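Input chain follows. Return structure tokens only.
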Amino acid sequence: MSVVSGNVLLTGATGGIGHSIARAFAAQGADLVLTGRRADVLEPLAAEVGGRALACDLGDGAAVDRLVAVAGAVDVLVANAALPASGPLLEYTQEQIDRALEVNLRAGDLRLSTDELVALDVASDPRPADYPYGELGREQRGRRIGG
């Protein structure tokens, strides 16, 4: 399995970037599970790429737990979902800030264990060989991490 194949869970599949990512993974033979809040947009895309559509609001913890249970084994997670925002931060309510943090930062792990996460593929990495990757290190990119 390469990083662009296997079982791929793509969040934020209802937007233009999500559509492009889904088509790119499908072209590489990936088995796709597509998520987003709008089933009416997900289902035609899933039919096009031969994937499964699972509508899910990543701001709802119980919905995320159901998604993880229904999605099955995941080789690659593409955390593409995000809530757009603009304007001065001080004009946001605490609820708006909490929801943005839940969707944009916390839901990205989808409550997956490290056994289910995959490091990025170094072959598609445009950064120079001496880029400071941190503790993962360039030589580990593209390999399964955890377990």
